[in-house]
Amino acid sequence: NTTAPPDLWDIFYDIAMNVVMMDLLSYENEVTLNDTKLSILKSNNYGMDLRVYVVTIIEQNWSTLNNASKLQLADNMTHNLLTNIGSNIPEISTMCKDIYFDLLKCEYMETSDFAKVRDHTISSVHSIVTEQTTTSSSATSVTDTSNASPLFNFFNNDLNSKFTSDNILNNSECLKFLSETKQLFHLLVALAKYPKNHQHEHERCFAFNQLMDYLKQMHREESYTRYAHRMSAELKSLGLNIEAGKALLLHSDLLHFADHEMDTLLPPFILDGVQIYGQQLQTARKEQIIGQAIALFDEANYFEGSIELCTSLASHYAEDVYK
Length: 323
Prior knowledge:
The chain is mostly helical. It is built from 15 helices and four strands. It has helices at residues 6-19, 35-43, 50-62, 67-72, 74-83, 90-111, 115-135, 139-144, 150-164, 172-192, 201-217, 221-237, 241-252, 282-299, 303-321, and strands spanning 265-266, 269-271, 274-277, 280-281. The strands form two sheets. The protein has a two-stranded antiparallel sheet with strand order 1-4. It has a two-stranded antiparallel sheet with strand order 2-3. Helix 5 packs antiparallel against helix 6 (90-111), helix 12 (221-237) packs antiparallel against helix 13 (241-252) and helix 13 (241-252) runs antiparallel to helix 14 (282-299). It is globular.
């Protein structure tokens, strides 16, 4: 039903994408299903793997949606699609590649940009690379073979081929997106290969800084601020409160003090599914972040840093609030 509410489509695709990841439905486990289901699959030429059957349902329903409806599903779809690109079931891998490409094309046709899908792509690549590195027996091998990753090959080969053969997406701005994503992949691998412990804190800080410099250079402020908070949380967990406070200030530095009439209302700040800050004015968020940094500096007895931040707040109150 193409007029179904967006929330219902979200639920449908969430369930469907989870089904295609279920090994229980693979050929090897088909004997656990009853004869009625097997005969239905055979009569419809879907073979012995129920996941292939689900793929056809996903594809059929996807083709009925307009561009705006598809983009509303990007929040939940992007991660599942990128996760399953490396599936050893060709039908699943092909479906994920095609729908991800379609999401990119839909957004570009609607907005002349990839802002929404790009943001979800950065978060998804981060979690996928981290998981792959964590489960690898050798962190070095993950780095050495990053170019052979199914996900990297998708951006480097499959998606590049789709872009260059498409009348709409074959342009310098769109191809720049592919270049950025490949560079991001390598930076995330460099970060993920080092364990989160004191022995590797310098290597991880260096990798964090490289990644954040790149995001700032590319003007990806939303992703930049998320990694600032991830770095801060990690440094705090290692007892490095001064460094954790300075990482928070990377977010604060992007914000500006303003009088009430000129202030900007910011949306909630969400990190890994958790709301860090609610909807608030830009000045209020900057004040809150500075307050958090002061608390971290105080815990480390870094009072000169706290005094410097307090001075900046005093200047703001004198010039903007109580003038």
